[in-house]
Design a protein that fits this description.
By secondary structure, the chain is of the alpha/beta class. It contains 15 helices and 16 strands. It comes from Christensenella minuta.
């Protein structure tokens, strides 16, 4: 039985080369170089077999693109691989994994490479909805099914999306906003620092919108409608001031700098809460607070992702709340979609995994889903994973159909 081969390639291209239609230049990461040196023969075999699309019942070759070397994307990918390996019907599938550095051109080039290689299906964690529309068109023209993961795509007119798995990030934001409203004995967070993720992907703006919707639905003055405040990034109103809008790009170091700058500019009393939209950025925010001599427990700190380290933060009171939003479930549902597709079975095409909010008072009472692939596979028999279970919600409304 063949082993699943993950060929990790960080694709780096200049815009000039891309515009000139020159072959894409690939710059392997250190991890990719290590893996490539250990499996040169296997990689060559994967490329050869990928040039001939597999018939039904044969081993499949999947092209899998991630927009960046983000641990969220990596966690979903690793669970996807584990699910394939655990199933005798998919254990010999091969996966060509490309990792970009956050540009639209890299996503497009990766999809073109997958098409040239003749893969049986394409999976993409997108850079932006706009470039995804072009990628879907190219995949459709080549007769290759296109699956989107994590970030809701934009489907061009007449285009076909084989599947999408991604969380409802607006609902994630609503959960954070509802918790923020309970802060300070129900007075709510009044002066908020909003640390968004990577702008342009859609998920960051969705979380901000959801947070503001919670305040709006509670009848609070936020200086306009939730949508207007989120889009225009205004300063808020009488019941909620947004004292700082910033992006931490989903990473700890940029978020740490953002929060350090906020502390310098506004002082310790210039804010009473921070919505830091993922756990890596929250890691940086906590570091900045503590290095400035401030106690994170003195502020409302809300996040999403719900990684294992955040469970400990919540127990210790270093974060106020988080939302368990693990990519492990995304990877599992993706595996189920692809298997059903190639078996010719009916399947739910657009699905959102379930969310579990938690805080310092209930974190030890809940069954939270881990990021770690090994821990997830051990817990898998005891949690809801069947794509047909109603606990997984329909996600068609999250997708833009042009």
């Amino acid at each position: 039985m063949k082993k699943i081969i993950a060929i990790v390639v960080c694709v780096a291209m200049s815009v000039a080369l891309f515009a000139a239609c020159a072959p894409a230049t690939e710059t392997p990461s250190a991890e990719a170089s290590t893996e490539a040196s250990a499996s040169t023969e296997a990689s060559a075999e994967a490329s050869t077999e990928a040039s001939e699309p597999a018939a039904s019942g044969e081993a499949k070759t999947i092209g899998y693109y991630k927009d960046a070397a983000d641990d969220y994307y990596k966690a979903g990918y690793e669970v996807f691989l584990e699910c394939l390996k655990a199933d005798p019907e998919t254990a010999d599938w091969e996966v060509i994994d490309k990792v970009g550095q956050g540009t639209a051109q890299e996503q497009l080039a990766a999809v073109e490479d997958f098409i040239t290689a003749g893969v049986d299906a394409i999976v993409v964690v997108q850079n932006s909805p706009e470039i995804t529309a072009e990628c879907i068109t190219k995949a459709n023209e080549a007769g290759i099914p296109y699956f989107a993961l994590t970030h809701a795509p934009s489907v061009p007119a007449g285009g076909e999306l084989a599947g999408f798995v991604g969380y409802d990030f607006v609902e994630t934001g609503v959960m954070a906003g509802e918790d923020a409203l309970t802060y300070n004995n129900g007075e709510g967070v009044k002066k908020l620092v909003m640390v968004e993720g990577k702008l342009g992907q859609g998920t960051a703006s969705a979380q901000s919108l959801g947070f503001l919707q919670a305040y709006e639905e509670a009848g609070k003055d936020i200086g306009g409608t939730a949508n207007d405040v989120a889009v225009n990034k205004t300063e808020g109103g009488a019941d909620l001031q947004i004292v700082q809008w910033s992006s931490g790009d989903w990473m700890a170091d940029p978020a740490k700098k953002v929060v350090a700058d906020v502390i310098t500019a506004l002082g310790a009393d210039g804010f009473d809460g921070m919505y830091v939209q993922n756990d890596e950025m929250m890691d940086g925010a906590i570091q900045a607070l503590e290095e400035a001599g401030l106690n994170p427990a003195d502020y409302w700190l809300g996040s999403s992702n719900g990684k294992e380290k955040s469970w400990k933060w919540a127990e210790e009171g270093r974060v106020t709340m988080d939302v368990n939003q693990t990519p492990a479930l995304e990877g599992d549902l993706l595996y189920q979609m692809l298997k059903a597709y190639f078996n010719g079975d009916e399947y739910r095409k657009y699905v959102s995994p379930y969310l579990t909010p938690y805080n310092s008072s209930n974190v030890t009472e809940l069954t939270l889903v881990p990021y770690d692939a090994t821990a997830y596979m051990e817990l898998r028999p005891d949690i809801v994973t069947d794509i047909n279970d109603p606990k997984f919600e329909d996600a068609e409304a999250l997708i833009t159909f042009n």
